[in-house]
Amino acid sequence: EAKKTGRGEQRMFTEDMNAVARDGLVIDGALRGAIEANEFSLVYQAITNAQTGKLTKVEALLRWNSSLLGPVPPDRFIPVAEDSGMIIELGTWVLDQACRQVGLWKQSALDDVTISINVSSWQLADPGFVTLVSQALIRNGLSPHQLELELTERVLIEDTLNVQTVLAQLRALGVGISLDDFGTGYSSLSYLTQFHLNTLKIDRAFVMDIEHSERSNNLVHAIIAMGHSLGLQLVAEGVETAGQATILEQMGCHYLQGYHIARPIAPDELLRFADSRAAALAQTPAQPDFVI
Ligand code: C2E
Ligand code: MG
Ligand code: MG
Ligand code: MG
């Protein structure tokens, strides 16, 4: 590719790379001390049962409001934190904070919710990780089935043997393992049986076009069929329209996540969402099994 481009384009590419590197350095500097300075918070996005509409799971998403840089999106600072190794400390903070929040939701409309946390490969490779997880559960009074860890396909190819062992230990604890952004990465179907997964999250890129592209529609259909035959739960990510939700439900997708249901929001706001969702479901008359 690079050979084919002219001199000018090549220089621009280099300048771009320099900008990215410079950006990374600035972010790296600003990240230091950011936990102590209380610059991080978690927002929570609802995941509902596609058939009943019940709020069943919640994904915790990290937010950073830097005193130096302002709000920085996770797609920009997570890779930097991974490069410096800071992701270990940051990931531990996320795990603690999210489990504490679920502990606080006891005896509310979010009483039995499952919390999903994004975990990077560095954390899984950390020898103390399984202990860290079980301690966070115990400390906050969570039952293990209330926690689900989201991994990307990259994690699975990076250190196969160790990852398999760690995932087996987590599953033995009772914690769920979910494969995030499914279909975008280094998909090898053998991973789906080789690793101890219980949930597949179908990436937004496929869900986005499901109403208008036959190809995306067929692809999502195939992923769902495959998930069913492997005994996996399916979550569709990035559901933005009622039309997408209907198609996904009809295809047998178990759970829906996306702006059509709710944006990622602060804990208080999520609790209000859960209250109104529960009230709405209680009012809906039970569906008859058949109509005469
Ligand atoms: P992800 O885990 O795939 O999270 C879903 C992303 O899609 C979130 O972006 C969410 O805000 C966004 N999203 C949800 N519904 C919709 C929708 O209907 N339409 C559109 N356009 N977007 C939607 P966010 O919060 O910016 O996070 C980006 C990524 O950063 C996450 O992707 C995850 O890979 C990573 N991340 C976030 N929090 C953490 C964390 O605590 N630890 C680690 N290691 N990674 C994290
Ligand atoms: Mg995720
Ligand atoms: Mg995802
Ligand atoms: Mg993603």
TrEMBL record:
Residues 24-278 form the EAL domain. It comes from the Bacteria. This is EAL domain-containing protein. The chain holds residues 451 to 742 of 742 of the full protein.
